[in-house]
Amino acid sequence: MFTSFKTLMVLVKGQNFSWSVYLVLIFGTAISVLVLCWLLALKAGFENAVQTTGRADQVVLLRLGANNELESFIDYKQAATASHLLPVRRYDNGRYMASMEVMALAEIPNVEGENLSVMVRGVYEGTDSLRSEYRLSEGRNFSPGNREVILGKNLARMLGNISVGSSIILRGTSWKVVGLFTTNGDAYESEIWSDAATLVNALKINGVQSIRLRLKDGLSKTDIEDAIRANRQLRLSVFDEKEFFKRNAAQLSNALINIIIVIGSIMGLAAGLASANGMAFLSEKRHYIFGLLQAFGFKNFGVVLALLLEGTAVALVGAGSGIILAYFLVDDLSANVFNMQTFSQLTFEYQLRISDIVWAIIGSLISILLGAVLPIMRAIRTQPLKHLQANGFD
Predict the structure, then answer these.
(1) Which of 22, 210, 374, 375 is most buried by its number of CB atoms within 10 A?
(2) Minimal CA–CA distance to 259: which of 40, 65, 113, 97?
(3) How is 107-140 classified by DSSP, letter by letter?
């Protein structure tokens, strides 16, 4: 290894043009890593928003056959029966830990004037106890009976033109924004919440879209399904709350993964081709150095290892530069994607994870080193005498 390092020093010092080539290779690698980190941070933010939504000990009830909340409708009689007859945990005061919720879509213009399709959720008093991550971050909660709403923090940031005290139009009427809330960055932060009874009156409906239930200790989704089958009044489907959100975002998740694979492959190929061109250029101009090294007894293995060390150093510097740029790019950056399964926007913050950084570094190393293989092998196949003759040594 020490001999290979000495060989590398000879190669680096032997040419005065190498630094410009190094800079080109480093720049190309940095851009590739920057794009890859940006895509992986987008995917991580999306996964965090979806996978952290809901609780493992809660279920969501929809109309039988419905796949999402907007497709569902449960009349009040079924909703009351489900909330009181199913094995549901209770509060200390004896009230059932259940939340009947109303859903609607609204077109809300952002700061650029573009209309975004946003989910509006009507909730009754006590729903915050079923969402332990819920916190008011600004303002106050809505008052029952008034046309007031609170916005998820991520949604408010994405809209850019709505704050506490603003008004928004829902179904042709004006509603006042009285607060902003956070749910630790999950999917609920992409929604608008209001009093369910007020929203029901505005929508002129006589029921709800979904019911959330906190299960008794030791019970599971299967126990709720058995209880529903035993009661002919109930025609409902049951979903684990956490799995429910993952299922509704599956199509979008697959699309993001495919985009990352395609763009990541293109950037990796570009970095590999840039590496091949750069290393080929360096190898071509170093023929006489290869000849001298081989004439003085340096083995081909040492030359190859030295060149691989050179490529590794370039890849690490480029990857490090790209990661630093990516960190500042995604810091406090939000994304906004349209979920075709719920017909609404999902907003979330980018998250650059350590594991993604490691994969970006590994990818840059693989691209650079694979690109360097052919120029290196071509260089060492030439005999020492030919190396020297090619550079005027007779």
Answers:
(1) 210
(2) 40
(3) EEE-TTS-EEEEEEEEE-TTGGGG-TT-EEEEE-
Cα 303 to Cα 8: distance, rounded to the nearest angstrom:
8
Handedness of CA 320, 322, 327, 328 (dihedral sign): positive
Helix runs in 182-297, H state only: 196-203, 221-229, 241-248, 250-285, 287-295
How many angstroms separate the first and last alpha carbons of the chain?
32
**Residue 382 is encoded by which pair of tokens?**
């030439």
Q: Tell me how far CA of residue 5 lies from CA of 12, 25, 282, 319, in angstroms.
A: 11, 20, 17, 22
Residue 161: DSSP 8-state: S
Q: What is the pLDDT of residues 225-238, one digit of tens each?
A: 998 888 888 899 99
Q: What is the pLDDT of residues 64-82, one digit of tens each?
A: 989 889 889 999 888 888 8
Helix (H, G, I), strand (E, B) or coil at 174: strand
Q: Which element (helix H / strand E) includes 21?
A: helix 18-51
Any residues with CB less than 8 A from the CB of 236 and at least 6 apart, and which?
61, 62, 63, 64, 74, 78, 82, 211, 228
Give how far Cα 173 sits from Cα of 106, 147, 148, 203, 256, Å: 11, 9, 11, 11, 36
Please, what is the Cα angle at 300 between 297 and 306, to 5 degrees? 105
Containing H/E element for 5? helix 2-13
Collect all residues with Cβ–Cβ distance below 8 Å to 80 and sequence separation of at least 6.
none
- Asked if residue 86 lies in contact with residue 218, where contact means CB atoms within 8 angstroms, the answer is no
| Backbone angles phi and psi of 213, in degrees to 5 | -130, 140
Percentage of the residues of the chain whose pLDDT score is greater than 90: 22
373 confidence band (pLDDT: 50, 70, 90): confident
Opening angle at CA 336, ends 150 and 340, nearest 5: 95
The angle, 0 to 180 degrees and rounded to 10, between the axes of the packed helices 287-295 and 2-13 is 140
Tokens describing residue 289: 């150095």
